[in-house]
Description:
This protein has eight helices and 16 strands. By secondary structure, the protein is of the alpha/beta class.
Amino acid sequence: MSVLVYVEQVDGKFKKSVFEAVSYAKAIADKQNTNLTAISIGNVADGELKELGKYGAAKVLNVANEQLNNFVNQAYAAVIAEAAKKESADLIVLSNSFSGKGLAPRIAVKLKAGLVDGAVELPNFENGFAVKKTAFSGKAFAITTLTSANKVIALNPNAFGVKESAVETVIETFSPEVKSTDLVAIVKEIVRATNKISLPDAELVVSAGRGLKGPENWGMVEELAELLGAATACSKPVSDADWRPHAEHVGQTGIAISPNLYIAIGISGAIQHLAGVSSSKVIVVINKDPEAPFFKVADYGIVGDAFEVVPKIIAALKAH
Ligand code: FAD
């Protein structure tokens, strides 16, 4: 029995969340005295595939099939399930990313596997195979014990971290049959909303809400983000009003993120917004209302007018 980790590529590159998933899978493989194999689908250069060895993947199955260059849920799930069978893998690990959320349940169904999505810690092996995960949109944690022979774990980005564990990686071409019925929806082109830092993977995020009054005031948010090397985000009403692109909307109905630092400017902290950001490591809130609910979950809070506070932070950052 062995562990298989799916390594999601974007434009032929792996993101940090992939290296986290590999590190996590390697830690489990080591505990179980077994091998770790990675599976990559799409067009990825050998040099990039070899990077996976730094985090403990001794073998990489490389599925370089033109039809699979862009993500197709059903076909990717079928290929990963085939790889699991080929490798006799009883545990499949992947990142709980946007595509991971669609893949994990499909793989679980194909392999008749138990599934934990949103995992935040290594399984507790002494207590069955008990995995801690987020629940109720990040408001609580739950422990799920997997009792099935096959298991699928989707790891939350930024929950486990990257751990180096260098091994020599062997790249093996894997060419499973792809059914035409699995290719009914084909992504022909992906147009990125922005070429700045990708929000789901960002370590630092500067976010703003309706308190900013209008889209013309986002210059200072972008400037602060640029100075910090952060991605920008926003609350739902802001994207609903087309002040900002929908790709920036975080929360229950938007993207769920867990950066190391989340700066919320002029956002009230409604429960639906917190659902997508409360697992951030450090939360800084800037709001002129001391009763704003966001302060209850903030690590640092500044009660003040964003139009005075944010330019001061920008000036201080520029002075250093
Ligand atoms: P507001 O609630 O209007 O808050 C603006 C804040 O700015 C206030 O706290 C105010 O004190 C402060 N402020 C005003 N002026 C200044 C100033 N000059 N300086 C500093 N602070 C200032 N929302 C999401 O964000 N994400 C979601 O995914 C989401 N999903 C939802 C799903 C459902 C089913 C529902 C019903 C709602 C959802 N919402 C979501 C909406 C959510 O309930 C809130 O309405 C929304 O988050 C409020 O956005 P806001 O904080 O930007 O605006």
